[in-house]
Amino acid sequence: MKNNELLSQYEDITENLSSSSAETEQLNIDIDPNKPTILFIDDEVRILRSLKMIFRKTHNVFTTSDPEAFRRLIREQHIHVIVCDQKMPKVTGTQLLAEANKVSPHSIRFLLTGYADLNAVIESINHGEVYRYLTKPWDVEQLKSIINEATEISQMLERRENNLSKLTLKEGEKLNLLVMFENEVIYKRFNEQFHDEFNIFWGKDVETTKHILETQPIAIVVSDIHFCQQKIVPIVNLLKQLVPDIIVLTVTEHLDSGDLIELINQGQIYRCLVRPVPVEVLGRSMQQAEEKHLELHNNPELQQRFQVEAIHTENAEQQDEDKPVLGNILDSIRKKFG
């Protein structure tokens, strides 16, 4: 091949790379104060280009594939919504979302991924406190709907930021904790470690749990991801719809990424702990759950940040098939709070 032909090909490649980089790195944009701001990070140029096209009319759109640029933006800009890809060369999305949770806690956070990685799902719950777990490829209208919903929530929180009040428990006052496990050993561990901090109720079976929910104002629920051989998603989903300040933690050894994604999107679980759980980790998680409940209870407008996605029709039909296993509990929740 002649030298001039090689040079021509090189120039074409360089031009394409330069164009792709320009498309990817949208860091210095003219901010429209009348628009909310969204930040996307992904290592795929075509993904960033597509997302920018979808949201540029409604949002100020920052896009980058550089983790350092991401960190600078969350420090320097008021970002309403953050969408992170999970699998990138230098860092994971969950690591960046954990940083964003500390630096820009008002931002509503999404994890975007083409596959369900179990560790990523757990980290996104425990450290990133993601609003939703999004999968590729996406439905454009559904994506626009959920991003716009998150934007509205973030703007509302921004307006209320300086008017939030802090609620603390009075001396001797305790929150009610429901421990939903058939295994008595687990209940005894919670009772032994937390009897001074919480009023602890043991939901050992459907009827006992039903009675507790009907008679006690529960603030925190701790459960396995399955209860009486059924997924807890319908119970958590209904509780979060009707009692949005309730905090739910899962403690499990039976991990399934699909179940956890459902519990993020449809249950907004606060923590997912893997058994065996170290004493200090469990203690810290329960303290954080108490603080989060008090914050939501005293500031109802914050509850929108943790609103849940509706259970899909086919799952709702499956829920009916699970009766009377879950049906009695669900009926009790509707009766008391609906």
TrEMBL record:
PROSITE patterns, A to Z: RESPONSE_REGULATORY (PS50110)
Ranges that cross the membrane: none
Family annotation (InterPro entries): Bact_response_regulator, CheY-like_superfamily, Sig_transdc_resp-reg_receiver
Sequence positions bearing 4-aspartylphosphate: D85
Presence of keyword Zinc-finger: no
GO terms for biological process, alphabetical: phosphorelay signal transduction system
PANTHER family registered for this protein in UniProt: STRESS RESPONSE REGULATOR PROTEIN 1, TWO-COMPONENT RESPONSE REGULATOR-RELATED
Protein name according to UniProt: Hydrogenase transcriptional regulatory protein hupR1
Name of encoding gene: hupR1
